[in-house]
Design goal:
By secondary structure, the protein is of the alpha+beta class. Helices cover about 25% and strands about 35% of the residues. Strands 1-2-4-5-6-7-10-8 form an eight-stranded mixed beta sheet, sandwiched between helices. The chain has a two-stranded antiparallel sheet with strand order 3-9. Helix 4 (about 110-125) links the parallel strand 6 and strand 7.
Amino acid sequence: MSEIATGPAGEAVFRRATLADVPALVALVESAYRGEASKAGWTTEADLLDGQRTDPQSVTEAVEDADGVVLVAEQGGELVACCQLERRGDSAYFGMFSVRPTLQGGGIGRVVLAEAERVAREEWGVRLLEMKVVEQRADLIAWYERRGYRRTGVYSPFPYGDERFGIPRRPDLRFEQLIKELGMV
């Protein structure tokens, strides 16, 4: 992992998460997407979903995954952002992307995404990064499109009835797959 300047957001130091990070990671993910705290940033899903976004068991599984990594970004020793990468043959899945709500819009998200792409491309030799985004999150999809991701038109259902992923506030939620070619190493 490397230290990368992030402009107005300051310096971000990246490292791989450990089991000791699980409680802080759960808190960060929850704060970025659910409840009142999430409304301080622009990535909130509070208008679409209630309940939890993740839980300690899911984050522990991600941290321990032999085919993946959870990247942590710290500033001044504080956890400010994270993401998960999971190797899937010639591609990698990108998820659990979270930035502290009060820092959203300051550039740290772009830096975290770039670091995830670098790890997938340079360390794993992966040529394609894929993710799933709630289709109704047009602003978030547009953010990814500005960074070279494209919509595939491939959809998967939201896991209605499984409260581990939240309690939907509307009946039409689904995920769309986004992809980005990472190029050669």
